[in-house]
Specification:
- The complex is a heterotetramer of chains A (231), B (378), C (251) and D (536).
- With 231 residues, chain A is α/β, with parallel strands linked by helices.
- Chain A has 9 helices and 10 strands.
- Chain A has a single domain, classed as P-loop containing nucleotide triphosphate hydrolases (Rossmann fold, 3-Layer(aba) Sandwich), CATH 3.40.50.
- In chain A, strand 4 and strand 5 form a beta hairpin.
- The relative contact order of chain B is 0.17.
- Chain C is α/β, with parallel strands linked by helices.
- In chain C, strand 4 (63-68) and strand 5 (73-74) form a beta hairpin.
- Chain D is mainly α.
- In chain D, the strands form 2 sheets. Chain D has a 4-stranded antiparallel sheet.
- Classes of the chains: A alpha/beta (231), B mainly alpha (378), C alpha/beta (251), D mainly alpha (536).
- Chains in contact: A-C, A-D, B-C, B-D.
């Protein structure tokens, strides 16, 4: 599904990613772990196309998307749940969801039911402004909004950051459900190890812009993983 | 400004420019006065006046470049300062007419007699003395700029907001000066000048003298600008232009710097206007028209914002083109050319003629500049 | 404790800052002794940047005291410029050198001097100041690049120039925010060395995520979490502290 | 003296007539009065006229009309009066029968000015009894103006019969006017009259009262002074209302010109100096449409605007899109450059139009439903202003609806609020930018259609509006349509209230200065929004 191959990324002269390679498969959750400032978000920005890569290539379903603009990637099935949610503050919840219609043909422009079954709270505040929602609700809205796009690839950037435990559970459940559907590949960027550990099929730990440790759910060595993460 | 070591003031480009200007200032009068009309080398008095006009425009361009090119302040109202200087000079020239006016009133200018004003309004007093007029030429634009800038910069009005209110300012002034009861001759403005400092403004000698004076004024303001931009002050200005917040954080009082340079630039524009009036023989409210101010900005853009020689060059090139187009059958196309110029320069030549030229010459390391161009604009 | 009698150069006590409900700093207190170097770590949203903002006067604390120089100055009453003049210099995360000025001019602008219009207009370079600039250039290892345009420097070099500009203001206290983000390993180690050198005669606070770098510094570490101090001590003490490990591995 | 003679004569004649009348068949006051017209003496004619009017006989009206038109003949011999009707037929004034053989001594009844005056008054008071209420009203108002004492008895008579309240009011006012000015009415009546006039409270009433002769009893003069003051204050109020109306009208024009700008500048953060020219294009589209209609199907002229609006929207809109694609998109994030480039564009557009249509003003006609005016209380309202206000509000509402309810509107708002995220959602931001700019320009085009109805259509049309529109947007708060609405009407009304004191130009200057200061106090305007727009 997603195949990131040895990419570098620079902000001006500063290098944020160094030869990162990453794979994500349909129906699987790939967790990218690491402390803040190690380049996790930069990796997602590179995949979404919000920042150009200076080396390497990215392909989706075998098609090279390295140089496609963000819009084209989104229309190609890449859905992004950014860090800090980035809800459209002045749009209602409903309108926020509807922004996800953009890539869809007219006849498919409906909000899938499972969005509301996963996050019933959204159903009750359709007319509320996105900006008036609590952090947790916004996070759910952001995920729901991404699902409206019927993505092939779902990118989640620290969905648990600053969110109360109950909602973290809902989000975890949602991710498990989506994984179960087997329709999309999921890339989950996290600092919260326990959360990631429950959901992940593959794990990659980043440090100073490179991947320093990878493992599968089966072959996971807790200690090694923690050591790779610890400070 | 004499305090500055010449080496810093005169880099190669500015030295060349000053020499050319000097040659110009000597050649034109010679060719006009000494070469017989019959000779092909003779320069007509019309041309002398025309060149004089260009020189004044070059000064205006210089004043705009100083604030736009180096401090990132885009004023769309600099024509106002130019015109105010012009009016101050015009008032002096009006008073010089004395009883030679149509109504032969020794004190009142014709238009006041015509509007049967009882006596001279207070703000006309003193303009019969050149010294006083000269003072006003610098003071009035300077004061307006100071008050205006003091409000604007202190409340951190920047970018397009500043541009728009400067345009509103000159627009308001235009409306005002169009009114007869403002006492500046309404829409006819001030004209029919007789003589300046005792010399007839029509005389060839005077015209050449005015041209030379303008050249000297241009040279001086050029040196002043050089002095400023090469001083530490100039470095601070550029710093403000490129990273205002950062500069403020370094402990510089940004608004003070902007205010100073804005006021100075206004005074310079005022002098330019003052020299312009006797050479064209009229000053009227249309000089305040927002269009004029923006046109002056494009001179700078064409020549190369942030390069003093560029500003001067731009003023000459564009105005020569204007003369070329507006005299003769091409005239209907001039506005297309001018309009096209605005678009072409901003899209294709953001650094202007000189700027692009310099970029070519300087080595790769400066290439990062072009990336700064947009930021410089804000 | 009566602030006037503190021996600390920088004294923060019970600082609280909240942005619409969310507490960025929550009763934060710590001391920096003169000539100390302190490393500050902490996960996202721990309040590191807000703390810097409070010290430099960019943000006003809702509650608490910020005193500078043995309690001589109450920073919460001064504005950015005044605080800068007091001798607190800050280096931002993103290097913000003046790209089109040369390395030398960047330092010249930063040099501690009369900042008023008249002064800069009539400014003449004196040998003393030139020497000062040379010294800094040596310290930040940019002497050979003095006449290069700053925009053309590498990321690491920009960061050093930034630090140099900080030094030029002759601050008593340097706040250095993520100096090594985006640097190569070599640059990172050089930066550590540079900071240690600076620390010989200046007080330094470094905020950094890069643990290799913090280790290299080998100074007292303060770990912030949710706006207050979670742990303090040597890097080893802190990194083995269970709660620190926990906040870094998750909630 | 003269009048005394007249009376004497009249008396004599009257007696004489009485005697004669015996000889006449079906004699009555009308017939008796008629005789007075047969003596060929002005005084007799005068008396006869008064007598006739007094009879209130239906035949009086036509008779006096004929007299007025010099169609009245008489024969002293026959003591008869004849009317020559429009067909040239001659009828007996008494019985209305055509006469075959005219007496030999037949002559026109002659008039002099005194008689004419009487005649008019008489006719006036006659029509006080006319069938049509409107006629009676006119008559009453005529009397109010003439203040002819002679009409007083008829007024009173009319008042007794009158049922229509408006006419009654007019009559009482007319009566008051007469009473007020006739020398032989007592102070009490005069004061009563004054109060009536005061209640009328318009310019005429004021003139009437201020025109009073000075030699009046003090209490009357006091009453008059009081009334005069009262009337002036009511007039002042209406004056204010009128100004407010003009303000609304100006405000709507400003709003119309500014809405488009509010979108391009406010929502997109793009400074479009050529915005005024988009308005100008709209106006010229209207001109072309009207020319075409005049040439091909004049009957449609009243619908020309309905045809012009969509066309103007399309023309300006397409130009706008072209501009965005061709110029502006290369300048995003460089507002000052955008400003210069679009200024250049405005020069070109003006010159294009100048080359095609010439530099002179083009005459754009008002459809019938847009011309004319009506009175509302003390103010006059012209239809074109009224329609423009309605139209403006309609456009504003339509725009809001479009932004709220359509897919395009949703995507526009999304892009405005968070461009990067919108792109990540698959919204084609570049396309949205082009369309948004097209929309803004299109609305400017529509504005042009409206402005063509009240302003000269010339290549410089746009220039007049650009600065004002910017002021409105900046004042109202960038990126906020409601702010633009409030801003436009505030400035419009403020402007109109300043004009009477400062004069049009100084008023404008005052407004500009005010805004310049205002921007410096609140650089983001009254209702500033956060977001990308603010960074413009």
């Amino acid at each position: 599904m997603l195949d990131v191959n040895g990419i570098d990324l620079h902000y001006g002269a500063a290098q944020a990613l160094r030869g990162i390679s990453l794979k994500a498969e349909r129906g699987k959750v790939t967790c990218v772990l690491g402390r803040n400032g190690v380049g996790k978000t930069s990796l997602l920005r590179a995949i979404v196309g919000q920042h150009p890569v200076s080396n390497g290539n990215i392909s989706l379903d075998g098609a090279d998307i390295t140089h496609l603009p963000t819009v084209a990637r989104a229309r190609g099935g890449v859905a992004f749940v950014p860090q800090g949610r980035e809800i459209f503050p002045l749009l209602t919840v409903e309108e926020n969801l509807e922004t996800g219609f953009a890539p869809l043909p007219r006849d498919q422009r409906t909000v899938p039911d499972d969005v509301f079954s996963l996050f019933p709270v959204l159903n009750n505040m359709l007319k509320r402004r996105g900006g008036d929602l609590s952090g947790g609700q916004q996070q759910q809205l952001a995920i729901g909004r991404a699902l409206v796009m019927r993505p092939k690839l779902l990118l989640l950037d620290e969905p648990t950051e600053g969110i109360q435990p109950s909602i973290i559970k809902d989000i975890g459940r949602a991710i498990t459900y989506l994984r179960g559907l087997g329709e999309m590949a999921i890339v989950l960027v996290e600092q919260y190890l326990d959360f990631a550990r429950e959901l992940g099929d593959h794990f990659a730990v980043m440090e100073r812009g490179s991947i320093v440790y990878t493992c599968d759910r089966s072959s996971m060595d807790e200690g090694a993983l923690k050591r790779a993460l610890a400070i | 400004m004499g305090a500055f070591p010449l080496t810093r003031l005169l880099d190669k480009a500015s030295a060349i420019f000053l020499v050319l200007l000097a040659i110009f200032a000597i050649a034109i009068p010679t060719l006009n006065l000494l070469v017989p009309v019959s000779s092909g080398l003779h320069v007509s008095t019309y041309l002398v006046a025309l060149f004089g006009k260009y020189i004044c425009f070059a000064m205006l361009a210089l004043s705009i470049d100083l604030i736009w090119g180096y401090a990132g302040i885009l004023s769309l109202g600099h024509g106002a300062f130019f015109a105010l200087g012009g009016y101050a000079m015009g008032m002096y020239l009006m008073r010089q007419i004395g009883s030679r006016g149509v109504y032969a009133n020794p004190i009142l200018p014709d238009f006041m007699v015509f509007l049967n004003w009882p006596e001279l309004p207070l703000y006309w007093y003193g303009f019969n003395h050149f010294a006083y007029a000269a003072l006003m030429i610098v003071l009035v634009p300077g004061l307006l700029a100071f008050v205006f800038g003091w409000f604007a910069f202190r409340s951190r009005v920047t970018g397009v907001y500043l541009s728009i209110i400067t345009q509103a300012m000159t627009y308001a002034l235009m409306l005002g000066f169009f009114r007869n009861n403002f006492g500046f001759g309404g829409n006819n403005g001030l004209t029919d000048f007789k003589d300046i400092l005792g010399f007839s403004v029509q005389a060839d000698g005077t015209r050449n003298a005015l041209l030379v004076t303008s050249c000297i004024a241009l040279a001086l303001s050029f040196l002043i600008c050089r002095g400023i931009v090469t001083s530490k002050f100039g470095k601070v200005l550029v710093a403000i232009r490129d990273a205002e917040a950062r500069t403020r954080f370094l402990g510089y009082r940004v608004e003070a710097y902007k205010l100073f340079v804005f006021t100075l630039s206004a005074c310079m524009a005022g002098v330019a206007g003052a020299l312009y009036v006797p050479q064209v023989g009229i000053i009227n409210p249309s000089e305040f028209a927002p269009g004029n101010s923006i046109e002056a900005v494009i001179w700078v853009a064409v020549g190369g914002r942030g390069t003093l020689t560029g500003a001067v060059l731009g003023a000459f090139v564009v105005n020569y083109a204007k003369t070329f187009f507006t005299t003769g059958w091409l005239s209907p196309y001039w506005l297309f050319v001018l309009g096209g110029l605005f678009i072409a320069v901003t899209l294709l030549l953001p650094r202007g003629i000189i700027g692009t030229f310099e970029l070519r010459r300087t080595d790769k390391r400066n290439l990062s500049l072009s990336a700064e161009a947009p930021r410089a604009a804000e | 404790m009566e602030p006037k009698t503190t021996s600390a150069l920088l004294y923060l006590d019970g600082i609280t800052v909240s942005f619409d409900g969310f507490k960025a700093l929550n009763d934060l207190s710590f001391l920096i002794e003169p000539h100390e170097m302190r490393a500050i770590i902490g996960p996202n949203g721990a309040g590191k940047t807000t703390m810097m903002d409070v010290i430099t006067g960019k943000t006003r604390p809702d509650a608490g005291d910020v005193y500078f120089q043995q309690g001589a100055y109450d920073l919460s009453k001064l504005d950015e410029t005044e605080i800068a003049e007091l001798g607190i210099g800050r280096k931002f995360q993103k290097p913000t050198v003046f790209d089109i000025h040369t390395v030398e001019d960047n330092l010249l602008l930063a040099l501690k001097n009369d900042r008023r219009v008249r002064a800069t207009l009539l400014w003449e370079n004196t040998s003393a100041q030139m020497r000062r600039i040379d010294d800094i250039l040596d310290t930040i290892r940019l002497a050979p690049l003095r006449s290069r345009v700053a925009g053309s420097l590498s990321h690491g070099q920009k960061q050093w120039l930034e630090i140099g500009m900080l030094l030029a203001q002759e601050p008593k206290l340097l706040l250095v925010d993520e100096p090594v983000a985006g640097m190569t390993d070599a640059e990172t180690m050089q930066t550590a060395a540079l900071l240690k050198e600076i620390n010989r005669d200046k007080t330094v606070i470094v905020v950094e995520h890069d643990m290799a770098f913090v280790r290299e510094l080998g100074v007292k570490v303060t770990c912030l979490h949710e706006g207050s101090v979670l742990a303090e001590g040597t890097i080893d003490q802190v990194s083995t502290n269970d709660r620190v490990v926990e906040v870094y591995l998750g909630r | 003296m003269l009048s005394f003679n007249g009376r004497m004569v009249a008396l004599v004649v009257a007696i004489a007539l009485l005697l004669i009348s015996k000889t006449l068949a079906n004699a009555g006051p009308f017939e008796d009065a008629l005789v007075g017209l047969t003596t060929d003496s002005f005084s007799d004619t005068a008396d006869a006229i008064e007598a006739l009017t007094a009879t209130g006989d239906p035949r009086t009206g036509p008779l006096l009309e004929a007299l007025k038109d010099q169609q009245l003949l008489f024969s002293t011999e026959a003591k008869k009066v004849f009317i020559k009707d429009p067909t040239g037929r001659i009828v007996d004034a008494a019985n209305g029968q055509a006469v075959a053989t005219l007496p030999a001594d037949i002559e026109n009844v002659r008039l002099n000015n005194r008689v004419r005056g009487l005649l008019d008054a008489a006719l006036g008071s006659l029509s006080l009894m006319a069938k049509e209420a409107s006629q009676r009203l006119d008559a009453a108002q005529a009397v109010f103006k003439s203040r002819d004492a002679a009409a007083l008895p008829n007024i009173d008579k009319a008042l007794e019969k009158e049922t229509d309240t408006r006419v009654r009011k007019a009559l009482t006012e007319a009566r008051a006017a007469i009473v007020l000015y006739s020398p032989d009415t007592n102070a009490g009546d005069k004061i009563a009259a004054i109060s009536v006039i005061r209640d009328r409270g318009d310019q005429d009433a004021l003139g009437l009262i201020d025109g009073l002769p000075p030699d009046l009893p003090p209490d009357v003069r006091k009453a008059a002074a009081a009334a005069s003051g009262k009337i002036q204050s009511t007039l002042a109020i209406w004056n204010a209302v009128q100004n407010a109306w003009y303000g609304l009208s100006l405000g709507s024009v400003l709003l119309l010109a500014a809405i488009g700008l509010a979108i391009t500048f406010g929502v997109m953060g793009v400074i479009n100096m050529a915005h005024g020219e988009m308005v100008m294009l709209g106006a010229y589209t209207t001109f072309v449409v009207q020319e075409y209609i005049r040439a091909h199907n004049p009957a449609l002229f009243d619908y020309s605007l309905f045809i012009a609006v969509p066309l103007a929207f399309a023309v300006a809109g397409l130009v706008g899109i072209a501009v965005e694609r061709g110029i502006i998109r290369f300048l995003y994030g460089r507002p000052l450059e955008t400003l210069l480039a679009t200024w250049g564009l405005s020069l070109i557009l003006q010159q294009v139009v100048r080359t095609i249509f010439g530099p002179t003003n083009k005459e754009v006609g008002n459809p019938s439903w847009m011309s004319g005016a009506f009175d509302l209380g003390g103010i006059t309202i012209t239809y074109n202003r009224l329609w423009i206000i309605c139209f403006t509000l309609a456009v504003f509402v339509a725009l809001l609806a479009m932004l709220r309810l359509t897919r395009l509107g949703l995507e526009m708002r999304a892009v405005t609020q968070n461009r990067a995220m919108a792109a990540a959602m698959g919204i084609r931001t570049a396309r949205i930018d082009a369309l948004t700019f097209g929309l803004g320009s299109g609305i400017a085009g529509i504005a042009g259609v409206a402005l063509s109805q009240i302003d000269n259509v010339s290549p410089n049309l746009g220039q007049g509006y650009i600065i004002d529109s910017f002021m409105v947007v900046v004042f109202g708060g960038v990126g906020n349509l409601w702010g633009t609405l409030v801003g436009a009407f505030t400035l419009g009304i403020a402007n109109k209230f300043l004009e009477p004191y400062a004069g049009a130009v100084l008023g404008k200057i005052a407004i500009l200065v005010f805004i310049i200061l205002f921007i410096q106090k609140r650089p983001r305007g009254m209702f500033a929004l956060k977001g990308r727009a603010v960074e413009a």
